[in-house]
Design goal:
With about 260 residues, this protein is an alpha/beta fold. It is built from 4 helices and 16 strands.
Length: about 260
């Protein structure tokens, strides 16, 4: 038996025109390996054609509301989908779907022709994004700006003022404490402290407070050293000292009044 074979025609040297068989084959390869599809979805959901789904990159615009982009039934593959509209885009097949928010680009894949998944879930990338759920960071993993706000070793640091709309509390449960002793001679300790007015060198702000070095010499438990090497005052803890000082002063007044 004689088998004949017809060779495909080839283009002339330096020609930009390919014969039909080569055109068709390379067009399919281009779509499958990296072709880009720009598609506008406006007033209704859209189902991609088999030819459109051959593109590896799909850029969607024109949404006037949240819309669905359906893959052809039974299609298996991976796509990079960019949502360039102002509304949410849902990429789906017959089963699960992937949500792509406005302005996001997400890699999606459909391994079984039914369910669509995202390889980049739960990202917060853009200014103004809202995160849902818990934010888990590694140790010392949060640093805003150039140290304006950062977390280190479970401690929170800020270079600016801290303001709260509700109460600021500290753990003080008896069950976590041992070697509990009443502060004695609290009034004498308070008398050794002084309140001062001062001007901040870095900001020029007029303030009132204490000098950490002076407090450290009298009640060292009220002063801690920060990572920057500067001394910080635990102002909230001075309450216990002031409470006992008031008790002692009250006792003295009662004794004088009893005479």
């Amino acid at each position: 038996m004689t088998i004949s074979k017809t060779n495909l025609a080839t283009p002339a040297n330096n020609s930009s025109n390919w014969d039909t068989p080569l055109n068709s084959n390379f067009g399919i390869l281009n779509n499958a390996l990296g072709g880009a599809l720009n598609i506008s979805i406006t007033t209704a959901d859209v189902t991609l054609t088999a030819t459109q789904a051959q593109n590896a990159i799909i850029a969607v615009t024109g949404l006037t509301a949240a819309r669905n982009l359906f893959l052809p039934a039974g299609t298996i593959g991976t796509w990079t989908v960019a949502n360039g509209s102002s509304y949410t885009l849902y990429v789906q097949s017959a089963g699960t779907y992937v949500t792509i928010l406005s302005g996001y680009t997400t890699n999606v894949y459909c391994p079984d022709g039914t369910n669509v998944y995202s390889s980049e879930n739960n990202r917060v990338l853009k200014t103004g994004d809202t995160m849902t759920g818990a934010l888990n960071l590694p140790t010392d993993g949060l640093n805003v700006g150039s140290g304006e706000f950062y977390v280190s070793g479970g401690n929170v640091y800020t270079s600016g003022s801290y303001q709260a709309n509700v109460n600021v509390t500290a753990l003080s449960d008896e069950r976590i404490k041992t070697d509990i002793e009443t502060i004695e001679n609290a009034l004498d300790l308070v008398k050794r402290l002084r309140g001062v007015r001062y001007t901040r060198k870095d900001t020029g702000d007029k303030c009132v407070g204490v000098i950490s070095q002076e407090v450290q010499a009298v009640v060292p438990e009220l002063v801690v050293e920060g990572k920057d090497g500067l001394l910080h005052m635990a102002y909230g803890n001075t309450v216990s000292l002031l409470i006992n000082a008031i008790h002692e002063l009250s006792d003295r007044i009662e004794k004088l009044e009893a005479k």
